[in-house]
Amino acid sequence: MAAYATISGGGPSNESDVEYTNNRVYDDYGTIGGGGYNRAGSDDGNPLSAKFTTIGGGERNTASGTTPRSAEAITTRSSG
Questions:
Q1: How high is the mean pLDDT of the chain?
Q2: Among 33, 80, 41, 26, CA closest to 59
Q3: CB of 12 within 8 A of CB of 22?
Q4: Sheet order of strands, 39-40 included
Q5: CA-wise closest residue to 30 among 57, 14, 7, 58
Q6: Backbone φ, ψ for residue 26 (5° rounding)
Q7: In a domain, 1, yes or no
Q8: Which of 39, 66, 68, 73 is the most exposed place for a label (fewest CB within 10 A)?
Q9: Pseudo-torsion of CA 79, 55, 61, 36, nearest 10°?
């Protein structure tokens, strides 16, 4: 469970699949500004492995790694 994480807005990108397409922050201090079906951090069970990941918004973005950032877009992957 991520500590100090923020999801400012947005929601599911598919209203008939809310559980799967909601925004999620997996690691500490991660941030999602809005949009839908975005993933900040790494879903590896360790909330420290991809701290400070940030996604501005958009849809289907993934930011994982040590400090990646993904600007608003559709289907973007950022890792490092």
A1: 86
A2: 33
A3: yes
A4: 24-25, 39-40, 62-64, 77-79
A5: 7
A6: -100, -20
A7: no
A8: 66
A9: 160
Q: Are 70 and 63 in contact (CB under 8 A)?
A: yes
Convert the pLDDT of each residue in 18-48 to its tens digit.
999 999 999 999 999 999 999 999 999 999 9
Nearest Cα residue to 61 out of 76, 46, 45, 50? 76
What is the number of domains present in the chain?
Answer: 1
Strand ranges inside 1-80, DSSP E:
6-7, 24-25, 31-32, 39-40, 54-55, 58-59, 62-64, 69-70, 73-74, 77-79
Nearest one of 16, 32, 42 to 73, comparing CA atoms: 32
DSSP classification of residue 27: S
Question: Which domain, by its residues, includes 53?
Answer: 6-79
